Amino acid sequence: MSTNILVTGGAGYIGSHTCKQLKAAGYTPVTFDNMVYGHEWAVKWGPLVKGDIQDRAALDAAFAKYAPAAVIHFAAYTYVGESVEDPGKYYRNNVYGTVNLLEAMRDHNCGNIIFSSTCATYGVPETMPMTEQLPQRPINPYGWTKLMIEQVLRDFEHAHGIKHMALRYFNAAGADPDGEIGEDHDPETHLIPLTVLAGLGRRGPIKIFGQDYPTPDGTAIRDYIHVTDLADAHVLGLGVLLDGGESRMINLGTGHGASVREVVDAVGRSLGSPVPAENAPRRAGDPPMLVADATRAKTELSWTPRYTNLDDIVGTACRWHKAHHGE
User: Fold this and answer.
1) What is residue 112's predicted lDDT score, i.e. its pLDDT?
2) What is the pLDDT of residues 80-108, one digit of tens each?
3) For residue range 273-305, what is the model confidence (pLDDT) as tens digits?
4) Could you tell me which residues come within 8 angstroms of residue 279 by beta carbon, excluding any fewer than 6 positions away?
5) What is the pLDDT of residue 206?
6) Is 91 a catalytic residue?
7) What's the pTM value of the predicted model, to 2 decimals?
8) d(CA 13, CA 185)
């Protein structure tokens, strides 16, 4: 009988890819999702429990039925702009919801949690590449909710012995290489799917925000990590905790950056024709460069990303979107 793992937000983009990797590793992923942003078609590798992390009775029922050995926690609102406009929604769901989840874990003797954190906890970094030791100074409510949760995790470990691993991701990208699941947000805000949709003619030209950054081509640079590699890191982290490993915070990125212009060009190569693009002013709060120092992930999780070539990452996204939209 395989070990049950409760995956909050498992019907979403990164959650569903992680469920696939969990199943391949011999676990049974139990998706717990309120389906606000999740998709039923993305839940293929274990049971689906429709519930909200703010609903303690729903959590209790899921823990009582499935007795998970650990939780992988993705359930969060993640739109930076919306978090600025409606911070209450973000603090209520992300922070209060996580406290609710941890109290349910405490009461059901579930002692391990992998948490989906973010490089947004660092704010505008002082040095590059970014290590886990950088000061954490978020510049928006979304980033603050994730940083607060990291502190909540430490406090719950001190009080209740719940071990945690906070994985601070950089830019999740791409789609399942087998084409079973992919990225489908509404609204969509991520560069690669927006660029693919522009290239397929399903939306207007992609906007390139800022052409005067201190980077080789003047556009902002980000560390794009393939979603399957992200999922692998969660499964490896889970193994570390279940084997009695200590709590820790770990960056997840490739250690290599790609500019906005390079991404747009890569999508054009994959689709076979240039993507319509137009220049736009910089957006407030966008740092010129965000690239991970992923040394700790390699040494402590034995994790090495399989997808490090931008064309390969973008190619998986293009194939999935073409199939998903019937191109």
Assistant:
1) 98
2) 999 999 999 999 999 999 999 999 999 99
3) 999 999 999 988 888 999 999 999 999 999 999
4) 207, 208, 211
5) 97
6) no
7) 0.97
8) 8
Burial 146-162 (b: 16+ CB within 10 A, else e): bbbbbebbeebbeeeeb
Which tokens is 174 given? 């791409």
pLDDT tens by residue, 254-278:
999 999 999 999 999 999 999 999 9
Residues making up the chain, counted from first to last: 327
**Cβ atoms of residues 206 and 275 within 8 Å:** yes
Q: Is the separation of the CB atoms in 302 and 162 below 8 Å? A: no
Contact 250, 321 (CB under 8 A): no
The answer to whether the peptide bond before residue 187 is cis (omega within 30 degrees of 0) is: yes
List, in sequence order, every beta strand (DSSP E) within the chain: 4-8, 28-33, 48-50, 70-73, 112-118, 163-169, 171-173, 206-209, 221-222, 224-226, 248-252, 258-259, 277-280, 289-290
Question: CB within 8 A of 66, min separation 6: which ones?
Answer: 4, 6, 30, 47, 49
CA-wise closest residue to 208 among 220, 200, 225, 196: 220
Q: Measuring CA to CA, which residue among 96, 65, 41 is closest to residue 323? A: 41
Single out the catalytic residue among 37, 142, 224, 307.
142
Q: 320 pLDDT band (50/70/90 cuts)? A: very high
Q: How much is the pLDDT for 74?
A: 98
Residue 176 CB-half CA count within 13 A? 21
Task: Give just the sign of the alpha carbon dihedral 143, 304, 228, 243.
Answer: negative
CB-based contact 138:126 (threshold 8 Å): no
Helices (H), 86-190: 87-90, 97-107, 141-160
What distance in Å separates the CA atoms of residue 252 and residue 70, rounded to the nearest whole number?
Answer: 20
